[in-house]
Amino acid sequence: MASGKKRVQAPSGTPPGRRASRRTLLLAGGGAAVVVVVLVAVSVLSSSGKDSQPPLVTTAETSGLAGDPKLLDGIPQHGLVLGSPKAPVTMVEYADLQCPYCAEFATGTLPTLLDEYVRPGKVKIEFRGLAFVGDDSRKALRVVLAAAEQNRAWNVIDLLFANQGEENKGWVTDDLLRRVGGAIAGLDGAKMLSNADKPLHEEQMREMDREAQTDGVRGTPTFTVARAGVPPGQISLASLDAAAFRPALDAALTP
Can you give the CATH number for the domain in which 115 is found? Predict the structure, then answer.
């Protein structure tokens, strides 16, 4: 586990197998008012329940993968940013690709937010990956950064979360990554894998760690929502339901 990253213990009353803590932060910088939306959660759940995800039907190479191949249809990507560059509001997601709560957000909540805020051009989402859970986190994140060079990072993120295995059990295999690369239209999977170990990606990971420290991130997932000129406010997410995100997003969208 990387220095400065803590896994948060559960308060009393947390359901069995689940550990969660919530924090509220307020940040301001660069002249832009920032509304920070935070949910810090750590789970000891295994990957149970992921078999219920719809199968990804493309070619024989990708058989056995879970995920929705149409989830990101029609949404532009640039690097690690998903959504229109002209969107007035930016939501940043800090996530570890081994974090079960991050997978819960990706598979359960994100599709609704895409339809309500991202596809209409209201909000763009920037992914900032952290890798404090273990080696599988780092391996997966390097591949995401390589996919970002082809503007397909979010497709890889979606498939990795949909097919997430138990923490630090070696689930991020070369075979899984090859199948993920072969499942995504417009992605050169072989190029993605060959570029995954570029020194540039190590520097990108260090930069995202620095940004997380600046933003006071203590666990994953953590979200920040910002728009220049919006009065500062604070919101703490009590759940990962889409309804919990709407007040912060709607407030940031209000001039």
Answer: 3.40.30.10
Asked whether residue 160 is assigned to any structural domain, the reply reads yes
CA distances from 125 to 58, 62, 117 (A): 26, 27, 10
Quick one: pLDDT at residue 180? 96
Of 204, 225, 211, which Cα lies nearest the Cα of 38?
Answer: 225
* Separation of alpha carbons 158 and 130, rounded Å: 16
What does the pLDDT read at residue 11? 28
- How far apart are the C-alpha atoms of 21 and 74, rounded to whole Å? 35
Residue 47 lies in a domain: yes
In a domain, 1, yes or no: no
Domain-embedded: residue 46: yes
Number of structural domains (the chain) is: 1
Asked if 42 and 7 count as a contact pair (C-beta separation under 8 A), the reply is yes
Name the residue with higher pLDDT: 88 or 29.
Answer: 88
> What's the predicted TM-score (pTM) here?
0.79
Please report which confidence band the pLDDT of residue 94 belongs to, taking 50, 70 and 90 as the band edges. Answer: very high
